Amino acid sequence: MSSLVATDSDATQEPAKVIQPAWVRAMHWTNAVAMILMIMSGWQIYNASPLFGFTFPRTITLGGWLAGALAWHFAAMWLLMVNGLIYLIMGFATGRFRRKLLPISPGGVISDVKAALTFRLAHDDPSGYNYAQKLLYAGIIAVGVVIVLSGLSIWKPVQLQWLTALFGGYDVARYVHFICMSLIVAFLIVHVVLAILVPKRLRAMVIGR
Amino acid sequence: MMGRMRKLLIPGVDRKLLIKDAVKIMPDMARRRFISGGASLGALTLLTGCDVLDSDSADQLLAQVSKFNDAVQAWIFNPDTLAPEYPESMITKPFPFNAYYDLDDAPEIEGKDWKLEVRGLVDNKKSWTLDELYKLPQVKQVTRHICVEGWSAIGSWTGTPLRDFLKLIGADTRAKYVWFQCADKDGYNSPLDMRTALHPQTQMTFKFADEILPRAYGYPMKIRVPTKLGFKNPKYVISMEVTNDYKGGYWEDQGYNSFSGS
Questions:
Q1: Which of the pair, A31 or A9, is modelled with greater confidence?
Q2: What is the ipTM score, two decimals?
Q3: What pTM was estimated for this model as a whole?
Q4: What is the domain extent for residue B38?
């Protein structure tokens, strides 16, 4: 009898259990589109004056030439910045960051990364993150903040010269911006591979549950 | 799809089957989105030159956002904020020559034959010889030139603040633009918004590194605007017009952002 009651309450609760609320899903996919536009146009911009001894193949860049790429970059930046700003505000205001991303302990990260690399990391609780995820998600948010700030410092090295100086000057800010892009691309690869390996996570980011 | 998924999330339904189902549906959707997105992005990258900004609706939208960005940048622009100045030891040597043509094709101007033509909303439309301009008070700046391509170089420029000259010729400083025309092949030109034209560091430049401006850097006169990207710093200037009309510019017309403030 008692077990029957428990099953009933499970049954009524479970469909309502939202792992990724609608605002998170909407912002996640908006961010995905904005990021891809920013990265592909950014590669074309990089090609106009490469920092290193290579350029990006034209087929994976956006904009066709420098002016087109800049137009894309400075349009998608609004999508990225407005979406990102609301996400940060919501993340702090709703307590989601604190709940989902904290605490992060070094020991927990090490043991979870070890477990993940040996394919022994459990994914039983779809609503919580393991330490490796916590570190990656908190880290990528921080990188997102730095890439926007370094981008602004490259865009406005006179009007926002205090910000440019914070990054070590205009030329250094370009390297910071590039390194952040590299970290985001690396994250993106791991993120997409894991989403394919653990489809219930992907499902939660699409339909919420 | 959402409705369908909800119906499937009924207790008692085999979860493994459910996930299998979801996976079957989702990558398909994601794939379709990716392909349709990828196709249009790919098509865009196939276009070259100015086509990219006037070919389809995406480009019209981009052009509109670029205009919006002009307004945002004008709002961010503080007429009292000075571009950072650097010690002379930091000057980039050699300072790069940069243009859409080779140095051999740069204008060769005879200083004694050259005159600066003044037009538009000004009281005194007389043309100025180089000797007359050299007599005006000059100031030096060591500032960073930032190219739209991303690279930068620190240079030393000496000349007359443009705002002093505009005052001297009785320009209507309520006008929207000062439009410059140049002697470059194909006729370089560029509009400068009046607030930037009146910025204390915006300069009619006659010297680079304390020497008469060499041919590579725009002899006999360039407009140095340290609050703008390099292409808004016209060289080999032959005329200036104070105007309320937006007359476009060599690079601006090809899709580069018109304000391009730094």
A1: A31
A2: 0.85
A3: 0.82
A4: 2-46
Q: Which residues sit opposite B204 in a β-bridge?
A: B160, B223
Q: Which amino acid is present at B99?
A: A
Number of structural domains chain B divides into: 2
Overall average pLDDT of the B19-30 stretch? 46
**Are A64 and B42 inside 8 Å of each other by CB?**
no
Q: Cα(B15)–Cα(B24) distance, rounded to whole angstroms? A: 14
B250 vs B25, higher pLDDT: B250
Q: Amino acid identity of B235? A: K
Q: How many A×B Cβ pairs under 8 Å?
A: 127
Same domain, B113 and B225: yes
Main-chain phi, psi angles of B79, to 5 degrees: -65, -15
Residue B260 lies in a domain: no
What does the alpha-carbon distance between residue A12 and residue B39 come to, in Å, rounded to a whole number?
A: 44
pLDDT in tens, A6-15: 444 444 445 5
Is B31's pLDDT higher than 60? no
B7 and B131 belong to one structural domain: no
Q: Which residues of A touch B100 (CB under 8 A)?
A: none
Residue-range definition of the domain harbouring residue A135: 95-209
A59 contacts B144? CB cut-off 8 A: no
Helix (H) and strand (E) counts in chain B = 7, 10
Q: Which of A94, A127, A150 is the last residue before a domain boundary?
A: A94
Lowest mean pLDDT among A23-37, A41-55, A87-101, A116-130: A116-130
User: Do B150 and B83 have their domain in common?
Assistant: yes
**Tens of pLDDT, residues A145-189:** 999 999 999 999 999 999 999 999 999 999 999 999 999 999 999
Question: Do the chains contact at B11 and A40, CB–CB below 8 Å?
Answer: no
Give the Cα separation of A151 and A84 in Å (integer): 14
Q: Do A186 and A171 lie in a common domain?
A: yes
Separation CA B257–CA A130 (nearest Å): 45
Q: Is B158 left (phi over 0), alpha (psi -120 to 50) or beta?
A: beta
Distances from the Cα of B147 to the Cα of A28, B208, B261, angstroms: 34, 18, 11
CA distance A203 to A205: 5
